[in-house]
Amino acid sequence: MKKSFNIAIIGAGLAGLTAAIHLRKSGFDVLLFEKEHFPKHKVCGEYLSNEILPYWNYLGVDPLQWGAVAIDHLALSAVNGNSLDIKLPLGGFGISRYELDHHLLEYALSLGCTLIPQTVEDIHFAENTFSVSTKDQQEFKAHLVIGAFGKRSNLDFKLDRNFTNSKNNWLAVKAHYAGEIRSDQVSLHNFKGGYCGISRVENHKINVCYLTRTEAFKPFKNIEEFQQKVLCENPHLRKFFSQAESLLDQPLSISQIAFQSKPSVENHMLMCGDSAGLIHPLCGNGMAMAVISAKLASECICEYVNQDWSRSELEQHYEQLWKRTFTNRLRAGNLLQRALQNDSLTSTGIQVLKHLPKVTQKLIQTTHGKPLKI
């Protein structure tokens, strides 16, 4: 490296932790800001595509050692129960964020990353340097900042990001269960107003995560009633919930989820993961996209130093690379989302796709990539 300077990463989710590991292994001093205490459950589908494994293995990360479950089949069902089962072109694995984020953080710290366990309240850029202010009134200086603070954060409002003024009417719910399902299969079940993903994670647990429009949920008293009266109209979900036992005291939920486009560079910060763009969960690839965006940002930062780029060159390269990598995936995800909201179209589509497995695999590939090159 020609220069030596520190990098601040705001948020220790998949994108933030992966970037921290990559950059620390590349010789940078990394400050990692995270307000939450680990281990911690998060609302998440907890399924990752195998496309990221070569990259993670290169970094020294092996989720299979932490109990990840190999998954190579997809089941899809309509509200009326019509369903199909297909082999995934690339496959993937299931692991909880509770387990995964904890191990990634421990690994990042073992490499020498510095954790700042505080809420970041503000970020200012002046004279080619960032000032990061925390809730306990500390201030940290950094040459570069990666924003990896998730789907929706108070920092988004501080930065006056474009999507914060838009109405976001999606709600997500997640819980872990004990029960019987195929361990090699991730399933996606449609219901009126949304869809639900089910897959196995470590220690024989089952992750259930569903997304619904807020207006579909409002008529019901609570999550349990909504599941009984809406989700269970789908016979596959009815069968699952009739025999499954919840492992959490209560489900986790988040609201105001924004699928609008977001800038990948904001106030000179490189945005990663959900902070840069959120693909619809039905695509089953949001977690992998977070990891890939961390790879793109980290590699651009390394080139910025090695090629002696200007800051504007770094930002332009990252923006172009992000768009080239993700624009088509996000567009395909939006189209699939619209189709799945139409019950009759979903049912008819499933009946047709049963006889066209190659077409189904092509559809899956539109929201997934090839194994990452190192």
Automatic annotation (TrEMBL):
Pfam families (alphabetical): NAD_binding_8
Membrane-crossing segments per the record: none
Any coiled-coil regions, as ranges: none
Name of the protein: Dehydrogenase (Flavoprotein)
Organism field: Leeuwenhoekiella palythoae
Upper classification of the organism: Bacteria, Pseudomonadati, Bacteroidota, Flavobacteriia, Flavobacteriales
